[in-house]
Amino acid sequence: MSEYPICPVAKPRMTRSDKWRKRPATQRYWHFVDLCKLNRVELPCFGAHVIFILPMPKSWSEKAKRQSNGKPHMQRPDLSNLLKALEDAIYQEDSVIYNVYIEKRWGPEGKIIIDQK
Question: Which residues are CB-neighbours of 95 under 8 A, at least 6 positions away?
Answer without folding.
Answer: none
